[in-house]
Amino acid sequence: MPPKAPSLALLQVFSPALRHDFLVPQSISPQCVRTIRNTAARVRKKAEHIGWMPREKYAKITSLDKLHRRQRDQRVQQRLDSQQRATGMIFAPTPIARSPMSTAAAPVPESPTAAPAADALFSSTSTSTPAPTPTPTPTSPETTAPFQPNPGPTPTTLPFKLPYLITRTKSLNLPVYEQTKGGGTSQLTIIRKITGDIPTFQRHIHQALFPSESEDFKDKRGRKKKWVSLNENTGHVVVRGWRGAEVKRWLELGGF
After folding, report:
1. Which of 108, 175, 183, 218 lies most in the core, judged by the most C-beta atoms within 10 Å?
2. CA-CA distance, 5 to 43, in Å (whole number)?
3. Residues of the chain with pLDDT under 70
4. Domains, the chain, ranges and CATH?
């Protein structure tokens, strides 16, 4: 049976840095001291070669740890691929014919310019006295200009009006989120705050992200699933995989 590896405390006692601080008792023979030093040298050489240390004696890398490392590497690679594909995204949705029932069920959202126009019309027809205009206050030359966010890509103009609208969050971010399920085996991209004809938005997202794929596919267990699904309870659109960078780029090109 091979000799058992010494403990960490014993290695620290006989390490080169602490060898002069701790004196070896006289009761230990020189041959025993040489054996301990040779064993410590072999353990130190093994630790430098394969990264093993005595404190990891009972914390060996299991198959579950290897699976988690593979999943982490896959997530990093998938996000890098999504960012690379996002650079070549274009906003070119095709008009989809809808039935009269779906048209009546999903009202078309108002454009962002509809509210200011309605306010201007209401103010012109009202008979209230105009409010006094405030006098401008002189500004000092030390005052800096207000912060202006970096403008995104130029929106693509379409010959038809989109029947849906995606509202940004309070922090002016796109409502696109990524999450994992099943212990990291399933990656999902969720799009929220959608108003209007959500099924049409679902088809347009599928055309942009999976142009050469059908709507359905079969997983490893043979179950039928969709690349882009709709949660009817919450109104969220769920996309398979890490597609956050592509979805945000597509929405920015659409002017959302």
Report:
1. 175
2. 7
3. 1-28, 46-60, 95-160
4. 8-56 (no CATH), 61-96+152-256 (3.30.780.10)
